[in-house]
Amino acid sequence: MTPGLLGGVALLATLVLSLVGLVLAGLSWWAQDRRYLEAARRVAPVAFLSALVSFGALEWALLTHDFSVRYVALHHSVKDPLWVTLVTPWAALEGSILLWGTLQAMYTWLVSRRVQVQGSATTGRTLLLDPWRAPVALGVLFATQVFFFAVMVFVAHPFDAVPNPPADGRGTNPLLQNHWMMAVHPVLMYLGFVGLSVPFAYAVAAMVARRYQSWIFETRWWTLVAWGFLTAAIFAGKWWSYEILGWGGYWAWDPVENASIIPWLLATAFLHTTQVQERRGMFKPWNFAYITLAFAATVFGTFLTRSGVVQSVHAFGDGPVGSLFLAFLLGVLALGLGLLSKVSGEVRDAGEVRWRTREGALLAGSLLFGTMAFVVVIGTVWPLVVEALSGAKVSIGAPFFNQVSAPLGVAALLLMGVGPVLPWRNTGGEIRRNLVVLGVALAAGTAAGLLLGLTLGVALAVGLFVYNLAAVALMVGQGVRERSRALGVSRGRAFLELASSSRRRFGSHVVHVGFALAALTIAFSQTYRFEESKTLRLGESWRTAGVEMTLRNVGVEDQGNRQSVYARVEVRGVDRRGLWADGTYTTRLNFYPQMGNQGLHAPDLKYTLYNDYYLILQAFDTERGQWATLRLVVTPLVLWLWVAGAVMALGTLYILWPSPAPQRQQAPGGAPA
Amino acid sequence: MRLALLLLTLLGLALAQPPQTTPPPDLSPEVFRIAKGLRCPVCQGESASESNSGVAQEMRRLIAEQLAQGKSEAEIRQFFVERYGPWILYEPPKQGLTLWVWLSPLIGLALLAYGLWRYLAATRARAVPADVSEEEIARLEAELHQPPDPHRRTP
Amino acid sequence: MRRFWPLLVLALGGLFWWGLQRPDPNALPSVLVGKPAPTFERPLLQPYRAEWGDRLELGEQVGSRPILINFWASWCLPCRDEAPLLEAYWRRYRDRLLILGVNVQDTEAKALEFIREYGLSFPSVFDPKGTLGVDYGTYGVPETFVIDAEGKVLQRHAGPVNEAVLRDMLRKAGLEGL
Question: Does the predicted interface ipTM exceed a cut of 0.90?
Answer without folding.
Answer: no
